[in-house]
Specification:
Elements: E1 4-10, E2 16-22, H1 29-35, E3 54-59, H2 69-76, E4 85-87, E5 100-104
Parallel strand pairs: 1-5
Antiparallel strand pairs: 1-2, 3-4, 3-5
Bound molecules: FE2/S2 (inorganic) cluster (FES).
C-alpha cells in the first residue's frame, strides 16, 4: 500500500491546512507548497538564494536534515528569522517527515 506524508501548514491568517503527499514523490517542501497553491515566488528556483520559501517549523524539527551553510547564510540575512526558521526548498520530502507542522512566513 502506498504511504502518504502528512504535513500540517499554518497559514498567515492562523488557519491550518493538512497536506497529504504521496510517498515516493521526488519533491522538496517548497515545490509541494507551490503545488498546493501557496503564494511562494521561489525566484531562485530552490537554490537557497531568495528566501521567498521561508517557513517556521512548529513541530517535528528533529525529523529534518540539518541546515547546510547556504541555508544558514540566507537565513542570517532575514530580519524576521526565528529559531526554527528553514527554507522550504532545502527540505526534501521523505516519509520520515510525516507529522511535520510548519508555518508559512514567506519574505
Ligand atoms: S526557493 Fe529561493 S530560497 Fe527557497
Amino acid at each position: 500500500m502506498e504511504e502518504a506524508i502528512h504535513i500540517t501548514v499554518e497559514n498567515p491568517d492562523g488557519t491550518t491546512r493538512q497536506l497529504e503527499i504521496p510517498d515516493g514523490i521526488n519533491l522538496n517542501l517548497m515545490e509541494v507548497l507551490r503545488a498546493s497553491d501557496y503564494d511562494i515566488l521561489a525566484t531562485c528556483g530552490g537554490m537557497a538564494l531568495c528566501a521567498t520559501c521561508h517557513i517556521e517549523i512548529l513541530e517535528g524539527s528533529e525529523k529534518l536534515n540539518p541546515r547546510a551553510d547556504a541555508e544558514l547564510d540566507m537565513l542570517d540575512t532575514l530580519p524576521d528569522a526565528r529559531e526554527q526558521s528553514r527554507l522550504a526548498c532545502q527540505i526534501q520530502l521523505t516519509p520520515s517527515l510525516d507529522g511535520l507542522k510548519i508555518r508559512v512566513l514567506g519574505n
